[in-house]
Amino acid sequence: MKRTKTFQVHVKDLAIGGNNHVVIQSMCNIKTEKTDDVITQIRQLESLGCELIRVSCMDMNDAQAIQTIVQNIHIPLVADIHFDYKLALACIEAGANKIRLNPGNIGKKENVEKVVEACKQYHVPIRIGINGGSLERDIHEKYGKPTAQGMIESAMRHVKILEEHDFYNTVLSFKSSDPLLCIEAYRLASETFPYPLHLGVTEAGTALTSAIKSSLALGNLLLDGIGNTIRISVNGDPSQEIIMAKELLKDCHLINHVPNLIACPTCGRTQWDMEPVVNEMEDYLKTVHKNITVAIMGCAVNGPGEAKHADIAIAGGKNEGLLIKKGQIIEKIPQDQMVLRLKQEIDAYKEED
Q1: Sheet of 320-325: strands edge to edge?
Q2: Contacting residues for 108 by C-beta, under 8 A, at least 6 apart
Q3: Mean pLDDT across the chain, nearest whole number?
Q4: Which residues are listed for [4Fe-4S] cluster binding in this entry (predicted)?
């Protein structure tokens, strides 16, 4: 799929924008000064496929913890900073690979200059994050409510500050809890700015509401060729964010190293306990990095057809099922052996088969 052309920004050794793939991002939900816990969480997210991680920086303890964290992870780290330019400087010196900062919110011109010079010295990009619910008072009063035009106007102010300091190593985001406003704002931004765009629906809620809102907003944008990094914000465990982002990118045909799990919804024709098998295989496939389609079907009506086109499949019968590989029946197995046999076949599967 053709991506909208943007400037290319490098975050450590990770290229964002240009013709590069859409980068999966998440954010730790642990206070950054708790370095051991943060490192453990980041490593878990790495194993699931996270490519860029953001941590909050609320005070100097958080900023100083970044050095230890960066030394013990393998993906680039973004420091999230608000209002205090000294925290930005401390995070940059500690080894943050990118900062999230709105330059119009850190006070005097000389404060901005100090941050920009540090970013230039250490080759650290800045993400300007525009939130529809937190626009400047005069912009909110001008439009009367959060609008795409108001979000673009706010971004222009912050971008202008950086460009006046000859700084173009910039990423932009335009988040809202309203998915339709997100679509409008990002589309307008892609026509207005040459910078890479970080996609997200903010304050999206639970796994259910976030999945629906993010699929609606970000799916449309990705299919338009818009977006260079993505975070699906979910209340709770951030590992859910990685799993959802991978699924969305896979379904938009933007990545191909994510398993595709097909499972029928079950009905009165199903004569075996299918749900536990599907759930266990879904968990197992989260850490599998292969382009493989696995089908688990409940009966003989749709089962054989879906199984025929899958790489590995189960077509269920009465308390048993047929194990099928590349359309060929391998063996008949009882339900209590289905999970084990599927895992064995998935582990042995080679994508070039």
Answers
A1: 260-263, 293-297, 312-316, 320-325, 328-334
A2: none
A3: 92
A4: 264, 267, 299, 306
306 is in an annotated binding site: yes
Cβ atoms of 27 and 236 within 8 Å: the answer is no
The domain over range 8-251 is classified in CATH as 3.40.50.620: no
249-256: long-range pairs with CB below 8 Å, 24+: 249/22, 249/24, 249/222, 251/219, 252/1, 252/219, 252/222, 252/223, 253/1, 254/1, 254/21, 254/22, 254/222, 255/21, 255/22, 256/291
Give residue-wise pLDDT tens across range 146-192.
Answer: 999 999 999 999 999 999 999 999 999 999 999 999 999 999 999 99
Domain ranges of the chain: 8-251, 260-348
- The reported pLDDT for the residue numbered 352 is 62
305, pLDDT greater than 80: no
Between the two ends of the chain, the Cα-to-Cα distance in Å is 25
Between CA 278 and CA 325, with CA 322 as vertex, the angle to 5 degrees is 85
Q: Is 50 annotated as a binding residue?
A: no
Does 182 appear as a known binding residue?
Answer: no
Residue 299 labelled as part of a binding site:
yes
Kindly tell me the sign of the dihedral angle through the C-alpha atoms of 348, 241, 170, 120.
Answer: negative
The amino acid at residue 159 is: V
Domain 260-348 has CATH 3.30.413.10: yes
Please report, rounded to a whole number, the percentage of residues in the chain having pLDDT higher than 70. Answer: 98
The predicted structure's pLDDT at residue 353: 46
Q: What angle do CA 87, 38, 283 make, to 5 degrees?
A: 140
pTM listed for this prediction: 0.91
CA atoms of 288 and 127, how far apart (whole Å): 31
CA–CA distance, 78 with 96 (Å, rounded to integer)? 6
